[in-house]
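Worked example

This section walks through a single chain of length 244. The input is the sequence exactly as stored; nothing has been trimmed or padded.
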Amino acid sequence: MGDITELTAVLKASLGWNLARVKCLSLIMTCLIKVQSVNLRKLASAFPGATLMDSNYKRLQRLFRSYNLNFTQVARLIVAMLPYTKLTLSLDRTNWKLGTTNINFLVLGVVHKGVAFPILWMLLPKRGNSSTAERIALMERYADIFGLTTIECLLADREFIGDDWLSYLKENKVSFRIRIRSNMLVSRAQGGTSAAKSFFRNLTMGQSRELGLRTVGSHKLCVHGAKLETGKYEVPPILRTAIG
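Given that input, the structure is written out below as tokens.
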């Protein structure tokens, strides 16, 4: 399993917990990598030493039953461990069912080496897409903790569009790259509009094209497209001019 002394020291300095609780968290983190599961029995079975698995399992139960994690502290810890002064963030949503109950989370993550690590989230009391108000509320939580000036770029998929949402990002000078639907209307240089995919039909595999500033909805955005190796199109509008 390896020595957890260094990890324990980092966690204790950041979280301020007692040593026993911090050591338990350190073991959980290292065992997660080993067993690749959040199942407590599987985690308990991977704990080092001669302690019985049932004892380790009860130890984990006590930790999660008796202690409320301060997720703001956890968010600060994750960001502090990354080697960046400016952060690339991802906004996404994950939805599944637990029995007949819909679980729908709006999640803000920090991107490191192609992986998004969740730092803030919101449980949506519904199925389906988030609203502009919900997205703004999550971004404002981030702003309260880290400040919006720490954002290098915000990445999001096709569902995270809308004039009011884009207005919020532009007004707060948050640079973003957001994919749009292939049939979304984009202004043409000679006038009129066409579906986004029509600007990239003649691209060869792996080729990309920058359209420059075009009107998308009620906003002037820089539109870029590429033809991926799968043969599909990637058409993310990218705001640059308002950010400088």
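What to look for: The first strand starts at residue 87 and ends at 98.
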